[in-house]
Amino acid sequence: MSTHAARLAALRDTLAATELTGFVIPLTDEHMSEYVGGYAQRLAWLTGFEGSAGAAVVLADKAAMFTDGRYTLQVRAQVDGALYDYISIPETPTTDWLAVNAKAGDRIGYDPWLHTKGWVTATAKALAARGAELVAQPQNPIDSVWATRPAPSGAALEVHDAALAGQSSADKRAAVAAWLKTQNSDAVVITALDSIAWLLNIRGRDVARTPVALAFAIVHADASADLFVEPGKLTDAVRAHLGSDVRTHDRSAFGDALEALGSKTVVADPASAVAAIFERLAAGGARIHETRDPCVLPKAVKNPTEIAGTKAAHLRDGAALTRFLHWFDGEAPKGKLDELQAAAKLRQFRDATNQLEDLSFDTISGAGPNGAIVHYRVSEATNLPITMNSLFLLDSGGQYKDGTTDVTRTMAVGTPTAEMRDRFTRVLKGHIAVARAVFPKGTRGGQLDVLARLPLWEVGLDYAHGTGHGVGSYLSVHEGPQRIATVIGTGGEEPLMPGMILSDEPGYYKTGEYGIRIENLVLVVERDVPGAEKPMYGFETLTLAPIDRNLIDVALLTADERAWVDAYHARVNAEVGPLLDDVQAKWLNAMTAPL
């Protein structure tokens, strides 16, 4: 099993032994999570792909790897093209590919704990049209050939104090109970890990970079709840925090508990509850009401306590990043730095705050051509030196108990080319357009996405990722439902509301040469617009760190854009400067001088 070819062959042997001709491998867990624990990294083990979104389909005579535009370069570097065809999504999802490549008589297996009900229904229909069959598997066949598969984390749950959460778990559960009454329902199944963490004011360490715990929950119309979690993860402090209205059970009891709901009306979110949950509910005779998890929107709309906390986290984090940028400005031109060293040094500055719980994702430390790999993750094998007259892209963030950060800066090392400065400035213009946007209540993120792309479109350029994603409060760095994205129907259709936090991160990537991205987090706020006929909203920038002035072609900026940069830099200097030592503060003062 030392090679991915051997792993693929072993999987095919196992499938043949169970009379299957294929199997579908998504990158997720039983909670439809984006970031998953080591035990659920089946796709990475099988294929070598280390991105955060993707899937594979293995047939007897062919296999395919499915990734979106963020991973066009990465998937080719990590997954053997002799073993897998590279398929782009959303253009060709797994269901459509199977509809073309499956043969009559094929039996395609899937793990019902790793797919949504909608996917199962659509894929079964597509296969049936080919004379093939989709077959649920009681045990995932990859687990039988992955001899070194790690066990799920046993880390203890942690209490997230109401002083940080801004609302007690009892009040949140009462709100869910009131909502259940409006739905004429008796209970709701909560499966998304960040929803459970938010609802019960608990956090965990079961998933790297995301402070959640592996658990399921059922909330009832009387505001009580059942929490299904490994017993060893419950400390006395957590039990006391949960109180008598939250009953705890072994995680393995969850399936039987679903069937025990009997003739009750039960809400389940088709986006986050896997197919197996619907099957167990139906087996017990429950009436199933499919609608969105009631925690999703209130979790996304931050309360005043969470907003104050995230602002404190961003100031702390911005000072750490600025210290790094000062250090980098002095060290990079010496020609002795590489990507791993830069990422490690930034981690040191964040650790020095004495409040960092974890990074919010693996730092993207991309020198030169590696910067063009949108979700690049540096390793010993890919580590590049940071050379003169090049660009360095650094996308990073921290998890603090009062907030989650995510920031990208692109820096010139030496003298940038005219093309680099042009592209950087166009990305900056798009960033500013979103940051300055004023829009009416009801506006969806997808309606704003074009603002970030127009300066690039004008010269025939674009980028293959969304412009903005939601961010949690000491939770997931990628949080829905809010997004700023191009494709309506797959993201970007949620109306933006005051209290939501999003990223503003347009970019440009020249394959084999360099990448550019400028990312700040922004908070949706109310705007006072004289004469407005409906409520108006805009963004308040949360991230505080200088933008590389050496990459700005000032002639490409309008007067309003120059004024935005100057005002932003003046704010960074005023708020971050007092947190630095004299040498760092002097450097920041120069870096934030008016254009």
Key features of this structure:
Creatine Amidinohydrolase, Chain A, domain 1; Peptidase_M24_C; Pept_M24B; Creatine Amidinohydrolase; 6-stranded mixed sheet; alpha+beta; 595 residues; metal ion binding; Aminopeptidase P family protein
β-strand percent reads 15-25%
Strand order, sheet with most strands: 4-3-2-1-5-6
Distance between the termini: 57 Å
Reported by name, the CATH topology of the largest domain is Creatine Amidinohydrolase
Largest sheet: 6 strands, mixed
Q: What would you say the CATH architecture of the largest domain is?
A: Alpha-Beta Complex
Briefly, what CATH class of the largest domain? Alpha Beta
Shape: globular
Give the structural class: alpha+beta
What does this structure look like?
The protein is built from 19 helices and 28 strands. α5 links the parallel β5 and β6. The model has no long low-confidence stretch (mean pLDDT 96). It has 595 residues and is of the alpha+beta class. α16 runs antiparallel to α17. The chain has three domains: 4-145, Creatine Amidinohydrolase, Chain A, domain 1; 158-299, Creatine Amidinohydrolase, Chain A, domain 1 (3-Layer(aba) Sandwich); 301-585, Creatine Amidinohydrolase. The chain has a six-stranded mixed beta sheet with strand order 4-3-2-1-5-6. Strands 12-11-10-8-13-14 form a six-stranded mixed beta sheet, sandwiched between helices. Pfam families: Creatinase_N, Creatinase_N_2, Peptidase_M24, Peptidase_M24_C. Keywords: Aminopeptidase, Hydrolase, Metal-binding, Protease. This is Aminopeptidase P family protein. Belongs to the peptidase M24B family. Residues 7-135 form the Creatinase N-terminal domain.
